[in-house]
Design goal:
By secondary structure, the protein is mainly alpha-helical. The chain is built from 19 helices and two strands. Strands 1-2 form a two-stranded antiparallel sheet. Keywords: Membrane, Symport, Transmembrane, Transmembrane helix, Transport.
């Protein structure tokens, strides 16, 4: 093979690989939103390496849950709400929609507040003005720009998350201790420990990801012309391609989680910073990356701010979009981010209202960084009943046919449900 043909063959393989990446990668990136960064940083600061094992052990469970959600969307050609509506009672339907709308709206508010607090580290502007600027910018882009185009731009901002892996590997680490903490679970039966671990579970396996990925798989099928007469025409090759995309997205997400907890443990906990109250506190985790730079404190704040803002801009549309998909499917409205406003007024009005309510929540006096952790805990509790529904749907032969969950998927899904339920119950028990 000539050098030219070799280069062309390699380029084709690379294009084919990136062509596989879709909703799984976007969902994985959105999972490490400001709420995730704050919760993982607080975990590392408060408990050092004590919860590092969660990032390793949660990977198969997180992957199984998102794979089941994606498969439900691909097989049925409907979002999660549409499937629940068709096969379950109105009480279950409206309870599910209510859970995700409430959790997402609170998450939106926390993310907008955190983005403004992060921006204030480098721009001396009133936080209210910054929140308004972010809210207007997000709504304008989400309503008037194709999310496919919008998300491609924002994925480059999400690369700022690489600062955490870089920090991990440029500072001296007690690797033996870290390896042990990553493999051997550490557990404390105290409210503080259970509160944070519920938050870790809730910001990793979170309700908005269930609804978002299911709906985005349907969007992908519509774009590729796979839905004919309302029924998806798919085979196992489509499922296998989805699983590759899903696995890559979840591995990247959980590796980033591991790095954020590790950096928090090494940089913050070891410096006796055990409680993160402000964005500046969280930004200190990145100072070792730029210690040799002039004004290293300002540089670390800038890198942290870019990461929080970029991921917030990516995550808020996912949060409002998944809430809107849920409401729109329940009420038989047109629902697609690829539709113009005039073609899907109800869908976009839910996005606008949930985002504005989230914005208003920042004016009731809650610390924006603390709000991110509280939101993660709320998601951990809300995810439990929704997981039960996902298990019932994905294992149903009536709904899923030959693509229903097999023994491995069922085992991982039930284990996820019981672990998250146990963490939530134990947390309330220790209050």
């Amino acid at each position: 093979m000539s050098a030219k043909n070799y280069v062309q063959a390699r380029a084709k393989k690379i294009r084919k690989f990136f062509g596989l990446l879709g909703p799984g990668l976007t969902t994985g990136a959105a999972d490490d939103d400001p709420s995730g960064i704050a919760t993982y940083s607080q975990t590392g600061a408060q408990f050092g390496y004590g919860q590092l094992w969660t990032a390793v052990y949660m990977l198969p469970f997180m992957t199984a849950v998102q794979e089941a959600c994606a498969r439900i969307g691909m097989v049925t050609g409907k979002g999660l709400t549409g499937v629940i509506k068709m096969h379950y009672s109105k009480r279950i339907l409206y309870s599910s929609v209510g859970l995700v709308v409430i959790a997402n709206t609170i998450n939106i508010g926390a993310d907008i507040g955190a983005m403004a607090a992060a921006a204030q580290l480098i721009i001396p502007v009133d936080i209210v003005i910054l929140m308004l600027v972010f809210t207007i910018s997000i709504l304008t882009l989400e309503i008037f720009t194709s999310y496919r185009v919008y998300s491609k731009v924002l994925k480059w901002l999400a690369l700022s998350l690489l600062t955490y892996p870089l920090t991990v590997f440029i500072i001296d680490q007690p690797w033996k201790e870290i390896l042990k903490a990553s493999i051997v679970p550490h557990f404390e039966f105290s409210f503080n420990f259970l509160f944070i671990i519920t938050g870790v579970f809730g910001t990793t396996i979170t309700p908005y990801m269930f609804f978002w990925q299911t709906s985005q798989e349907v969007e992908e099928e519509n774009e590729r012309g796979l839905i004919q007469d309302g029924k998806p025409k798919i085979g196992w090759r489509h499922i296998h391609a989805m699983r590759k995309d899903n696995s890559i997205g979840m591995v990247i997400s959980e590796f980033t989680t591991w790095c954020i907890i590790l950096v928090g443990g090494t940089v913050l906990h070891n410096a006796h910073i055990t409680d993160i109250n402000t964005a500046a506190d969280a930004a200190k985790a990145l100072e070792p990356l730029v210690q040799s730079f002039p004004n290293s404190g300002l540089v670390s704040k800038f890198i942290f701010a870019v990461g929080i803002i970029g991921l917030g801009l990516l995550a808020v549309p996912v949060l409002s979009g998944s809430a809107s998909y849920a409401v729109s499917e329940a009420l038989n409205w047109n629902a697609s981010l690829n539709l113009k406003f005039t073609k899907a007024r109800g869908f976009y009005m839910v996005i606008i209202i949930s985002t504005l309510i989230g914005l208003c929540m920042n004016f009731i006096g809650i610390n924006p960084v603390k709000a991110l952790v509280y939101t993660a805990v709320l998601n951990g509790v809300a995810a439990v009943p929704l997981l039960f529904l996902i298990i019932r749907i994905s294992t149903s032969e009536c709904i899923m046919g030959e693509f229903k969950s097999r023994w491995l998927s069922k085992s991982l899904l039930w284990a996820t449900f019981f672990f998250m339920a146990a963490a939530s119950i134990a947390m309330f028990f220790t209050i």
